[in-house]
Design goal:
The protein is mainly alpha-helical. It has one domain. It contains eleven helices and no strands. The radius of gyration is 22 Å and the shape is elongated. The N terminus is likely disordered.
Amino acid sequence: MKKKFIILAFCSFGLASCDPQTLEGVLSNYPKTQSSPLSNEDIIKGLKEALRLGAQTAVQSTSTENGFLNDPLIRIPFPQEAQQAKDWAISKGLGNQVTTFETTLNRAAEKASIKAFDIFANAIMQMTVQDAYGILHGETNAATEFLKRTTTNQLKEAFGPIVKQSIQEVELTKYWEPITTGYNATTLLTGKPKVSTDLQVYVLDKALSGLFVHVAKEEAKIRTNPAARVTEILQKVFGTLDK
């Protein structure tokens, strides 16, 4: 019985809808040791609710002010490939510029995440019943890893314009250009490579990464923590996992 409901927990993070016939087809592959206490209608409703809750919570967590900046798990740092430029700026008394730049990096990601719910949820809903077989015996974040592997390219394409607009709104380049311009001028004498980090790509990658971190957290909570099942249908469907 428990094995049957593992697929329900995993599918909750990828299936937008499961009609009764399709769901029965999946579950028929497992031994029926006892009858299910849940109707197909209950199961489908629970899957949709878990999907909505996981995506919504992840977006709410990241899109609030300081959602990225004050979260050590997803905070966006100064680009690693530009570390020498950061060190140079600090040595020249531009520490405040560096701090402001890092803050605006995270603000751009937070602004992009505000509009992420529909885009992210629609991408998640592309998972098919057949896809679920691949994550049956996976780790606790198997559904999230599947989504990351199969939807990142689509999400980047959809998020691109949002990130670009957010960067313009927070005037990110205004703080980036003085640091890089000053540093790049020194490379004429030192022979070191100039800094040319693409801020749009950098923020985009970090914003998507942060969203996936929080989706994984919600996946783990709903699967393992009864207190995270905040609605009756979630308690009814996922409570079976505890038995």
